[in-house]
Design a protein that fits this description.
Shape: globular
Oligomer: single chain
Structural class: mainly beta
Order of helices and strands: EEEEEEEEEHEEEEEEEEEEEEHEEH
Strand content: over 45%
Number of domains: 1
CATH topology: Beta-galactosidase, Chain A, domain 5
Bound molecules: 6-O-phosphono-beta-D-glucopyranose
CATH architecture: Distorted Sandwich
Helix content: under 10%
């Protein structure tokens, strides 16, 4: 990585920097946010508005493929690419064009009292998007970094003129969570939920067991859910909460599918699980002038048993 930045000032206690990276023939820009009062940071590429790193206490919580393709027109494999206006295959390229498009950077605000940082990225229709999807739209991704959480809100505005056409879309925050080992990873909170099994011809099933496990490839759309917990056998759990988004996709490609990826090492399916908030089953329809919002919050918490051990140790020291 070669860095020509920072363009913005990064103070020793945190701040923001717009860093330029040369990857092969192309230069990419990423915004680095460092929380001024807590050990938390994140990185967001303008390419796809892809959050590629989220760290707490220097610990990386997202997975980014070491062989991810950084090239115009290609999605970054890992982090949190934004899927819009189409989830999965369909008339548009797989997962739509937002994850392959160059977004523009808005303002970063810092809440004085807490140091929490909030930044906005925007994407509007261009000639290229209108050629494949004939609509005027504006997307705003708002990323908020707090000491133990990272939230992302996607706002979709139909900018077609009054009397123009409505549009419908599906969307997803395609979140690659880093895990210690997929074999030990459990996703809780989805018991009794209905899901569409994308590996079984779209059959609708019910999650009977308490936890989703990953003995093989898993590719499911869980319907009408807004809360999940991811436990990879470590001391912390990652909590995912959503509003506006109705569904979660839970995905891990396992050995065979990963072998077909040119942008991921063959063993790396062991290192992540995708738990992704989205509207992926029933599309959202927006009239001209209307807007829709969906958000997901990721936060980490020490497991209760670890918390009590920490508290016990602290008491012993008193
Ligand atoms: C998931 C889908 O969201 O994304 C899977 O449910 C898909 O079916 C996966 O394989 C990865 O897609 P892509 O286009 O990034 O390889």
């Amino acid at each position: 990585m070669s860095s020509d930045g920072p363009t913005y000032k990064m103070g020793s206690t945190g701040g923001q920097a717009l860093v330029q990276e040369k990857k092969g023939e192309h230069t990419f820009e990423k915004l680095v946010l460092v929380h001024p009062t807590a050990k938390a940071s994140c990185e967001i590429y303008l390419h796809g508005a892809t959050v590629t790193s989220w760290k707490i206490l220097d610990q990386e919580l997202l997975y980014l493929s070491p062989t991810a393709a950084f090239a115009p027109g290609k999605a970054i494999r890992g982090g949190v690419p934004v899927v819009f206006p189409q989830f999965g295959p369909g008339p548009l390229p797989q997962h739509g064009f937002a994850r392959n498009s160059l977004w523009t950077l808005g303002e970063t605000k810092v809440v004085q009292a807490t140091g929490d940082m909030s930044t906005e990225l925007h994407l509007e229709d261009t000639e290229a998007t209108r050629a494949v999807w004939p609509h005027a739209f504006r997307l705003t991704l708002t990323v908020v970094l707090k000491p133990t959480s990272l939230s992302m809100q996607l706002r979709v505005l139909n900018r077609n003129p009054e009397g123009g056409s409505a549009f419908s879309f599906t969307a997803l925050l395609h979140t690659y969570l880093g895990v210690e080992s997929i074999a030990k990873t459990r996703v809780f909170g989805l018991q009794h939920a209905r899901f569409v099994d994308q590996l079984d011809g779209g059959a609708v099933k019910q999650q009977d067991s308490e936890a989703v496990t990953f003995p093989g490839e898993v590719d499911r759309k869980y319907l009408n859910v807004n809360l999940a917990r991811v436990n990879d056998g470590g001391n912390c759990e990652l909590m995912l909460k959503s509003t506006g988004f109705r569904d979660f996709v839970v995905w891990n490609p396992h050995v065979k599918k990963t072998a077909g990826f040119s942008d991921m090492p063959p063993e790396d399916w062991r290192k992540f699980v995708c738990v992704e908030a989205g509207v992926v089953q029933d599309p959202v329809e927006l009239q001209p002038g209307q807007a829709w919002e969906g958000a997901q919050g990721l936060s980490i918490a020490l497991l209760p048993e670890v918390q009590s051990q920490v508290a016990e140790k602290a008491m012993q020291k008193l």
